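Following up on my earlier thread - several people asked me to post the actual chain instead of describing it. Fair enough. Here it is, all 422 residues.
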Amino acid sequence: MTPTAILLCYVALALVDLGWGLFLSVLNYRNVARRGGAVPEALRGSVGAEDAAKAAAYSKARMRLHLVESPALTALVVAAAAFGLFGLLDGLVASLVAREGSAGAFWRGAAFLGALMLAQWLLSLPFSLYSTFSLEKRYGFNTTKAGTWLLDLLKGLLLSAALGLPLLYLLYAFIDRAGSLWWLEAAAIFALIQLLLSLIYPLVIAPLFNKFSPLPEGSLSARIAELATRLEFRVSGVFVMDSSKRTRHSNAYFTGLGRAKRIVLFDTLVSRMSEEEVLAVLAHEIGHEKKRHVRKMTAVSIAFSFLGFWILDLMMGWKELYAAFSFAEPSKHALLLILSLLSGPATFFLTPAFSAWSRRHEHQADAYAARAAGAGALSSALIGLNRENASNLWPHPLYSFWYYSHPTLSERLEAIGKAGSL
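Reply from S.P.:
Thanks for posting it. Predicted structure:
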């Protein structure tokens, strides 16, 4: 293929990906707007009209933001590719980072990719600020102070550099020294690093952004210990995260691997839910572990990592590919950029398959929790989470089929009722 043909294929894929996403978003928006503040039949008696109206208004506001942000950012990226801006940036970086050898190639690549990350952040900044300090505040969710937001930003930048630079150097070293099977060895090493990061994340990284306090002794902690013992589930501890200093949204999750697994409860969840509801949410998360969902998803992630490294190796010598994106010569950093540009548009059709797989996991975890902690408590907890987060009560079926990693609330309640009666 000629460079022009390659570029046209990329532009076409990007526009198809964008167009399909916007089409689904418009369907979703119109479905919510048409229903207004009505309560779905399955939720009548459980969700009030005021909560339903807030969920509809909040969902529409977020969708309006997406309908502006998504085409704007996609248009900028496609324009940068079409008008050769990536090649111009590469030439500018080469003139500023004039070093020879592998060290020079690494620092040139790091500077190029760092400049792109900075540009992406700057372009996304207005949307992020509006979402956090206007939209979320308008609906009573945002509690983030400007100082907290800036400190999070600084920590994120430092963490990205601390992790990203060594990983990029490691990748360059494998490409330069590991021979024709570099991609296989690199994929294996990076898979181990991924597992290592999963182990250290709850212990080292997460505490950089939030405070995690052991759940105080009392009725709830005793009942959690009893539940974990009854379900033969071992964790290193139960912690409450100070999420309320950033948001009023509620959630709970497990993090870590092996003996480093810990239960994390948002402080907003602990303060608003009954003990029975908290236990049901935890039973749902335990269900994920018992069904080995995390391990399966990690295995798939690692498999796609191997696939990505293999594709990187196949594309490395394709000179027309570099020329299509206006690079004067092949380079590792150019290939990393091109692969990141192509990966989304080229694989968007896989989204519903992964969404369906995730929804199946959620149904399985719900069924486990319904039997372990009671269908009534789990249903009540999910309704409460939906209310506290103002989640969409009327997603369009095609939109939820394509994007939703969780079943809709109505679908979950129906399935939980059946599981609880078994």
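The mean pLDDT is 90. That should answer part of your original question.
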